[in-house]
Design a protein that fits this description.
By secondary structure, the protein is an alpha/beta fold. The chain has helices at about 15-25, 25-30, 40-50, 60-70, 85-95, 115-120, 140-150, 200-210, 235-245, 245-265, 295-305, 335-345, 355-370, and strands at about 55-60, 80, 100, 125-130, 155, 165, 170, 175-180, 195-200, 270, 280, 285-290, 345. The protein has a seven-stranded mixed β-sheet, sandwiched between helices. Strands 7-6-11 form a three-stranded antiparallel β-sheet, with no helix packed on it. It has a three-stranded antiparallel β-sheet with strand order 10-12-13. Helix 3 runs parallel beside helix 9 (about 235-245) and helix 10 (about 245-265) packs parallel to helix 13 (about 355-370). It is globular. The two termini are about 25 Å apart. The structure holds ligand T4K.
Length: about 375
């Protein structure tokens, strides 16, 4: 029997070779390949407008952007965050010398539950780090209000939320800093890359310095303990090309999501997150909850794998369960909703060019896996 074509959880959107080659061709004239060159500056300018923010700092990847953001707080402080996320969120907090304090999520959108945040605040709390997981936008109004009342900063992990708007406002207009990932698997990619948006010029200067070893000016003083995390010109050029096609990609992704919701409507034991009417979604991920009372999510994932359809267990386990964070003594039972989500959710294959035939194949594989 011929081997089946595999369908992976995602596939990066890329410009045509011609468009990318045209974008990078002048790098052979200038020989400037990094250190905030022309492409980097141009991408920054476009992103400010696109994201509706006053400042953005571009990074080698989103993770280092998060690390930079958390490194601006005095070491030893506590950061209230969610364990239902990619490990990067928690790693960034820890690597910046801070202590994550895990707070549960709300059951519909899987984002940090603001009603629990206040109880987690201690005299050592310095910040709140919510995650717009899957592109589901947090209750930013409630979170920002708590932060204001307690004089805390908010760093949004917006790795999944590029290009989203809340009641017409860019998602990064909330909180103090928002990190977007431009990894190959994201709705907007530069291959590897990321950006931290903020509305404070001092923060922007510090983030710029952090990614350049801490130098504010070449050869000047080093005030922050930084790293080397600059975006290259080749990555920025990829970003310039992909940004031109973002709107059309979004239309295609919206269609894919609508097809899935339509095809799987009424299948017992599974459900989608309710759409957020106030949010202009970017259709980054399509999580499906497999009710554990009826089915075992892990069995479903492996039965789909056997049919050549690769969903993902984003996010399993909880970050609080990883061995490297054992020293925090976080009990996953203290975040029961997050624990349940980590055992029940899978994300379906989703990318702009996923054909209707392939969507049908994924749906059939899922339904068969449930039998
Ligand atoms: N915060 C959150 C909430 C995040 O989700 C992430 C990253 C970050 C922070 C940190 O941002 P970055 O530092 O990454 O910018 C992936 C990604 O590596 C990671 O970016 C992402 N989140 C995480 C959720 O998923 P994997 O190991 O699960 O994915 P991977 O590499 O197996 O790719 C998935 C599928 O995509 C593959 O089966 C095939 C396809 N693919 C992947 C790559 C890399 C391609 O077709 N081409 C490619 O180049 O981690």
């Amino acid at each position: 029997m011929p081997s089946q074509r595999q369908i992976y959880v995602t596939k990066p959107s890329m410009p045509s070779k011609e468009e990318y080659f045209a974008e990078v061709s002048d790098l052979w004239e200038t020989g400037i390949l990094t250190h905030s060159g022309v492409k980097h500056q141009e991408l920054e300018r476009h992103l400010l407008k696109f994201l509706d923010v006053p400042y953005i700092t571009l990074f080698t990847n989103g993770h280092l952007g998060l690390e930079a953001a958390f490194s601006l707080f005095p070491a030893g402080g506590e950061v209230i965050t969610t364990p239902f996320t990619f490990v990067s969120t928690t790693l960034a907090i820890v690597r910046a010398g801070l202590t994550p304090v895990f707070c549960d999520i709300e059951p519909e959108q899987y984002t940090l539950d603001p009603s629990l945040v206040e109880k987690a605040i201690t005299p050592n709390t310095v910040a709140i780090a919510p995650v717009h997981v899957y592109g589901n936008v947090c209750d930013c109004g409630a979170i920002d209000a708590i932060a204001k009342a307690y004089n805390l900063k908010v760093v949004y992990d917006a790795a999944h939320a590029f290009g989203e708007c809340v009641d017409g406002a860019g998602v990064a207009t909330f909180g103090d800093m928002s990190m977007f990932s431009f990894h190959a698997t994201k709705v907007f990619n530069t291959g590897e890359g990321g950006g931290v948006a903020c509305s404070d010029g001092t923060l922007k200067r510090k983030l710029d310095a952090w990614k350049y070893y801490g130098f504010e000016t070449s050869g000047g003083d080093v005030e922050v303990v930084g790293a080397n995390a600059k975006m290259t010109e080749f990555a920025a050029a990829m970003g310039l090309c992909n940004l031109r096609h973002f709107a059309e990609e979004q239309v295609k992704r919206a269609h894919v999501c609508a097809c899935y919701r339509n095809n799987l409507n009424g299948v017992a034991g599974i459900h989608f997150c309710p759409e957020q009417p106030h949010v202009q979604s970017n259709y980054a991920y399509l999580p499906v909850t497999i009710e554990s009372e009826l089915y075992c999510r892990d069995v479903v994932v492996s039965r789909m794998d056997d049919q050549g359809v690769h969903s993902r267990k984003y996010f399993y386990p909880l970050t609080s369960e990883y061995t490297c964070f054992e020293y925090l003594h976080a009990n996953p039972e203290d975040t029961p909703i997050a624990l349940k989500a980590s055992r029940e959710v899978l994300t379906l294959p989703l990318y702009a060019d996923l054909s209707e035939d392939d969507i049908n194949r994924v749906c059939e594989a899922l339904v068969k896996a449930l039998r």
